[in-house]
C-alpha cells in the first residue's frame, strides 16, 4: 500500500557511565542479531548514549540512516537525562525497552540493573511530557524483546500515519445522520489536517475528469476485478471517471501532508447528479490504502486509516446494523461455535468493502436508495454497489470519536466473522464478539458512539490499543468478560 508509512526502525543503546559500556554494546548487538534472525528489519545505531554530548552524533547517525522510528534500549541502568532528551529531540515515535540479566553466573561485572533504570527513565519521560511506546512488560532477553519490537512496528505506522494525514471531506453529513458529524478541533490535536469542501466541488472535479486517458485503464481494471459479477458493464466508465477524479484531486491537494483519505457525502443528492452510487469506487480506494468513508464520517475514515496502518490490510466501515434472527441462529448452530445469540450481529453497508475482503462479489444497486429514488422503476442512478458476503475469519471492531465537547475516546473489540450466509443484501456478514450484548449497551450506547464501526480483517487489538495510548487517548473501551461489570452496569442483572 502506497498510502501508509514505511517504517525504518533504529535501535540505539544507552549506558550509565558507572556501568561497563561494553555491556550495553554487546546486548545491543545481540538484540539486533535476534531481530534479523526473526526477519524483523532493524538498523543498528552504533553511537551509544552515555552523556548529553552523545545526543548530537546519535541524531546525526539516525538521520543519515533515515530512521523514522526509534527503539531506545537500556542495555544497563542508563543515564535517564540524556536518554529521555534523545527521545525528546527525535522527530518520530520511540519505544523504550530494557535488558534482563542473562545468567546467575555473572552478576557482578555482568549485572546491568536496567530493570531499575527503566523506572528512572519513565519518571524523566513524564517530566519532559513524552509518551513513548512501552510494552506491557518492557524488560527481557534479546529473544523476548525482538518480539516486542515487532509489535512496535505496527504502532509506529499508526503514529506516523496519523501525524502526516490529511482528510478531504466533501459535503455536510446527510440529514438525520448527526452521529457522523463531530468537532474537528481534536483532529488538529492529533496532528491530522482536514480540508473541507462542498458537494459542488466534488461534482466539479468529477466533470473535469471527463476524457482523462486514465479512465479506460481504470475501467479495464474494474472489469477484471468484477469478473462474472460485472452486471452493469456500461456503468464502468462513469465509475472510473469518479475514481480518476478523486485520485487526481488527492495528488494536487496533498500539500505538506504525506497521506490522505476521504470522507464524502454519498446520498441523497449524489445519485441525481452523478448518476450512480459511489460504493464500488470506495471499495477500490480502500484496497489501495485510501479509505473513503460514507456519509461524511470524518472520524469513521480516521478509524479506517488507523486500522489500515496497524494491519497493512484494507479496512472497511460498516453499520452495526441488525440482530441475527433466532431461527437463523438455530439453523446455523454448528457454525456459531460457543457464541450466544446476543454475541452476534450483522455488519452491513451498501457496498464499500474491498473485494479482497469479500467471499463473493457482484455489482448491484442500492436497494434502500432505490426505494427512495426510483420506486417501481428499473435501477439506474442507484447502481454501483459491490455486494456479497464479507469473508469469514478473524476481525476487530474499532472506532475513534470526538465527543461534542471535543474529547477523544475510542473502543476496540476482537471477534470473528462467521461462515454463515446472512441471506440479505449489501456488503454484509455475521459478526461475533464475546459479550457483544453488554458491549453494545454499556459502551456503544452508554458512551454514545455512532452506528459506524471500523473493521480490521485480523485481530489487531494489541497494536490499536497501544497506538491510542500513545496518541494520548485515555478513554479506550473494550468488551469485558461476564465476570467483570461495566461501571454503569446493574449488578443485580
Helix-strand blueprint:
Elements: E1 9-14, H1 21-37, E2 42-44, H2 55-64, E3 69-74, H3 80-89, E4 94-99, H4 114-127, E5 139-140, H5 142-163, E6 165-170, H6 185-190, E7 193-197, H7 199-208, H8 214-226, H9 236-253, E8 259-264, H10 269-274, H11 279-287, E9 292-293, H12 298-311, E10 316-322, H13 326-331, E11 344-349, E12 362-365, H14 367-373, E13 383-389, E14 393-402, E15 408-417, E16 427-432, H15 436-445, E17 452-456, H16 461-470, E18 475-477
Parallel strand pairs: 1-2, 1-3, 3-4, 4-5, 6-7, 6-8, 8-9, 13-16, 15-18
Antiparallel strand pairs: 10-11, 10-17, 11-16, 12-13, 14-15, 14-17, 15-16
Helix pairs in contact: 1-5, 3-4, 5-12, 5-16, 7-9, 8-9, 9-11
What percent of residues adopt helix (DSSP H or I)? 25-40%
Total beta strands = 18
Strand order of the largest sheet: 10-11-16-15-14-17
Distinct helical segment count: 16
Indicate the radius of gyration in whole angstroms: 25 Å
Distance between the termini: 47 Å
The rough form would be described as: globular
Helix/strand/pairing category:
alpha/beta
Low-confidence stretches: none
Largest sheet: 6 strands, antiparallel, barrel
Number of domains: 2
Amino acid at each position: 500500500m502506497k498510502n501508509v508509512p514505511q517504517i525504518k526502525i533504529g535501535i540505539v543503546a544507552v549506558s550509565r557511565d558507572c556501568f561497563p559500556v561494553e555491556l550495553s554494546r554487546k546486548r545491543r548487538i545481540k538484540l539486533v542479531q535476534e531481530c534479523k534472525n526473526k526477519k524483523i528489519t532493524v538498523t543498528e545505531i552504533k553511537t551509544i548514549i552515555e552523556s548529553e554530548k552523545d545526543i548530537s552524533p546519535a541524531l546525526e547517525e539516525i538521520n543519515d540512516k533515515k530512521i523514522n522510528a526509534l527503539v531506545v534500549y537500556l542495555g544497563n541502568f542508563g543515564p535517564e537525562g540524556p536518554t529521555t532528551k534523545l527521545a525528546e529531540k527525535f522527530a518520530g515515535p520511540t519505544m523504550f525497552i530494557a535488558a534482563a540479566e542473562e545468567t546467575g553466573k555473572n552478576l557482578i561485572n555482568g549485572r546491568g540493573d536496567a530493570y531499575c533504570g527503566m523506572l528512572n527513565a519513565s519518571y524523566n519521560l513524564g517530566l519532559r511530557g513524552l509518551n513513548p511506546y512501552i510494552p506491557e512488560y518492557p524488560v527481557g532477553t534479546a529473544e523476548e524483546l525482538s518480539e516486542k519490537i515487532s509489535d512496535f512496528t505496527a504502532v509506529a505506522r499508526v503514529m506516523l500515519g496519523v501525524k502526516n494525514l490529511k482528510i478531504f471531506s466533501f459535503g455536510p453529513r446527510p440529514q438525520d445522520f448527526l452521529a457522523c458529524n463531530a468537532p474537528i478541533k481534536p483532529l488538529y490535536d492529533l496532528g491530522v489536517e482536514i480540508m473541507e469542501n462542498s458537494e459542488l466541488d466534488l461534482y466539479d472535479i468529477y466533470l473535469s475528469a471527463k476524457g482523462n486517458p486514465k479512465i479506460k485503464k481504470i475501467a479495464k481494471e474494474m472489469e477484471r476485478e468484477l469478473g462474472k459479477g460485472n452486471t452493469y458493464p456500461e456503468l464502468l466508465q462513469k465509475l472510473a471517471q469518479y475514481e480518476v477524479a478523486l485520485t487526481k484531486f488527492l495528488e494536487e491537494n496533498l500539500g505538506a501532508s504525506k497521506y490522505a483519505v476521504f470522507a464524502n457525502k454519498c446520498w441523497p443528492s449524489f445519485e441525481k447528479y452523478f448518476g450512480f452510487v459511489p460504493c464500488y469506487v470506495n471499495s477500490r480506494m480502500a484496497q489501495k490504502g485510501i479509505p473513503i468513508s460514507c456519509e461524511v464520517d470524518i472520524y469513521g475514515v480516521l478509524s479506517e486509516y488507523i486500522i489500515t496502518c496497524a494491519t497493512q490490510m484494507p479496512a472497511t466501515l460498516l453499520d452495526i446494523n441488525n440482530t441475527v434472527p433466532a431461527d437463523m441462529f438455530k439453523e446455523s448452530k454448528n457454525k456459531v461455535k460457543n457464541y450466544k445469540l446476543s454475541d452476534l450481529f450483522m455488519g452491513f453497508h451498501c457496498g464499500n468493502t474491498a473485494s479482497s475482503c469479500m467471499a463473493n462479489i457482484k455489482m448491484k444497486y442500492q436497494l434502500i436508495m432505490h426505494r427512495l429514488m426510483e420506486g417501481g422503476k428499473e435501477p439506474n442512478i442507484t447502481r454501483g454497489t459491490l455486494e456479497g458476503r464479507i469473508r469469514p475469519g478473524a476481525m476487530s471492531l474499532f472506532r475513534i470519536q470526538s465527543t461534542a465537547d471535543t474529547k477523544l475516546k475510542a473502543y476496540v473489540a476482537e471477534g470473528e466473522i462467521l461462515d454463515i450466509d446472512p441471506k440479505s443484501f449489501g456488503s454484509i456478514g455475521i459478526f461475533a464478539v464475546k459479550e457483544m450484548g453488554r458491549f453494545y449497551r454499556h459502551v456503544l450506547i452508554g458512551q454514545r458512539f455512532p452506528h459506524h464501526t471500523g473493521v480490521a480483517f485480523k485481530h489487531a487489538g494489541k497494536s490499536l490499543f497501544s497506538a491510542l495510548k500513545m496518541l494520548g487517548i485515555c478513554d479506550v473501551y473494550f468488551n469485558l468478560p461476564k465476570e467483570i461489570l461495566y461501571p454503569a452496569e446493574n449488578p443485580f442483572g
